[in-house]
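Dock 5-phosphoarabinonic acid; give full complex structure.
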Amino acid sequence: MSHPLTLDLTGLTSAVLGDHGPSDAEIRAFAPAARDALATILARRDKGELGFFGLPDDRAAARACLDYARALPPAVDTMVVLGIGGSSLGPRALYSALARPMDALRPRSPGMPRRLLFPDNADPVTMRAVLEVCDPERTVWNVVTKSGGTAETAAQLLVVAEHLERALGARARDRIVATTDPEGGALRATARARGWKTFDIPPNVGGRFSVLSPVGLLPAAVAGLDVMGLLDGARAMRDRCLADDPATNPALLLASMLHHHHVVRGRPMVVLMAYVDALFDTADWFRQLWAESLGKEKATDGTVVETGPTPIAARGATDQHSQLQLYVEGPRDKVVLMLTARQRETEVVIPDGELTKSRDEYRYLGGRGMGVLLDAELRGTIGSLAKRRRPVGTVELARVDAASLGALLVLLECATAYAGPLYGVDPFDQPGVEEAKRLAYAALGRTGFEELAKDLPPTVGKGPYVL
Ligand code: PA5
């Protein structure tokens, strides 16, 4: 049966790496721990704690997003997503992968898909620019926050709400939509009080696992992306990722293999290197997923472990000219996963004219596609890594479409979930992130957080080594 996604981890094994990778017998020995990890996660799912498994089945949520998009006035040509972390990286990955490249930069014309903008950070320079380029009459602002109170998102919301009220008066109400917890949090309360349209993030779905909830689906629907295709691909992959044998479950094999390379062979770094520009933001989304889920001070039994792998997002061929030297010859502490697509959406053929023929340095390129060049660069990179017995695997999409992307996202979510018990940690909490949020509140003098101010570092210029 052909799948929209093929995972090839042969380059992580002794078949390619010799003594630097696990043998068939070692891989077979992964099975009991992998089964235990799966059972731990599925037991939590069955208790209703892990809603991300069920998101591909939630057609009603998808339909509500599509209905909202259809009902938007034709004059609205832009949605700005106000959110950070899991509330922004997922929708941005969907948009980068599935929308026409550079769409946000094309001159606006009737009938074009709506563009999405992701200021993401609370950088005032970016925020000022977003306010300048977005006509209040033509823009909707989607405020996304699971907790409802993240400072960066709250700041964006407060700035935008006042800006719109000044520009549109009472009509500002129709230009703000809130995506948040169904009951709790400041955003839910504010949305109720102001009469803003709302979408729910299921209570049992955390930020970095929320891409297939309205967090990702609403912006995707507004941009005219194939929301149902995304869920179809996700559902098919989710079902594959429930098999209890790493030989047939791609997420379980990926999690086991990366965990083995880390804890047995000393390779804590995982590079996800996209050889398709459209997938770079998916690699960036994975960077958060893998890091925030698995980097933990304490194991689930309370012992201090200070463990976790380090994910790196890279772009091929660009990073061949930036990072590859390190990956090929530096410390043997990395596993590289190439992210690519069998079929590219379009090809640009390099002309075979007089200029091309004028020099040896150009001649071999004549009549070839730029995609062919990129594929050759990919093969060359895999070759140089494998030749030095450096682990390199491939995640290949049949093409970059909604179904393949849905499959990819769920593969990486399930692999992350299963890696949690392999590392002995809870992949669904983020105490370190929450502590940093509380310290930022203390730094801003928020009531109730005064005690924490003592944990803040001195301001720059006060320490003993100031030069
Ligand atoms: O994955 C997570 O839980 C975090 O990265 C959150 O998404 C991020 O901190 C933003 O939180 P919130 O959606 O509550 O504003």
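Observed: The pocket of 5-phosphoarabinonic acid is lined by residues 84-87, 145-147, 150, 153, 206-208, 292, 430, 433 (CB under 6 Å).
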